[in-house]
Design goal:
The structure holds 2 protein chains of 2 kinds. By secondary structure, chain A is mainly beta. Helix content of chain A is about 0%, strand content about 55%. Classes of the chains: A mainly beta, B mainly beta.
Chain lengths: ~110, ~120
């Protein structure tokens, strides 16, 4: 167990729908990162939050949004889902803003049908 | 912009063979971190090693060893006496301290170890 908890593990939904992926970081970690792993794009960085504030943005679609709450858990919201959004979504956490001590969760596998 | 290239898409070896996975990176930063992750069929990302740009010492951990050469911008990973349990996708990744500390991943190398 890495200490980073992602729920749900699997999600199947229809095109056009909206889903929320949840991530609880490792105890004491202030930074949360979201990554998407898809067949055509590979593993790519989506967004980072540090202590509730957005710190870095990657190739995140406008249909996607995220936030980090006061208890430091984070949610990734995906809306108007398309077939191409089917992917494995990873959350990672670290103690600071740096990549030192980066820990990944086990991922949420999203299937859009 | 940072970039990581893993030219080997798939490698197949017979158990007990040694295998080297190549990783070449591009960065303009002088301070950066390099990583290797393993992704077994179950899907999770397993951290293997982190190396900072100022530490060019090679590292050995059991059957795993890493060769970091700044002169060629490479960070290669060798598995000695491979085992079937080593079958997985292996990712090399780069993090620039000036890039928000996101990880830029290579496309991965699928390693298949057969009996």
């Amino acid at each position: 167990d890495s200490g980073v908890t992602q729920t749900p593990k699997h999600l199947i939904t229809a095109t056009g729908q909206r889903v929320t992926l949840r991530c609880s970081p490792r105890s004491g970690d202030l930074s949360v990162y979201w990554y998407q792993q898809s067949l055509d794009q590979g593993l790519q960085f989506l967004i980072q939050y540090y202590n509730g504030e957005e710190r870095a943005k990657g190739n995140i679609l406008e249909r996607f949004s995220a936030q980090q709450f006061p208890d430091l858990h984070s949610e990734l919201n995906l809306s108007s889902l398309e077939l191409g959004d089917s992917a494995l979504y990873f959350c990672a956490s670290s103690s600071g803003q740096g990549a030192f001590g980066y820990t990944f969760g086990s991922g949420t596998r999203l299937t859009v049908v | 912009a940072q970039k990581v290239t893993q030219a080997q898409t798939e490698i197949s070896v017979v158990e007990k063979e040694d295998v080297t996975l190549d990783c070449v990176y591009e960065t303009r930063d002088t301070t950066y971190y390099l990583f290797w992750y393993k992704q077994p069929p179950s899907g999770e990302l397993v951290f293997l090693i982190r190396r900072n740009s100022f530490d060019e010492q090679n590292e050995i951990s059991g059957r795993y060893s890493w060769n970091f050469q700044k002169s060629t911008s490479s960070f290669n990973f060798t598995i000695t006496a491979s085992q079937v349990v080593d079958s997985a996708v292996y990712f090399c990744a780069l993090s620039e301290t000036g890039g928000g500390n996101k990880l830029t991943f290579g496309t991965g190398t699928q390693l298949k170890v057969e009996l």
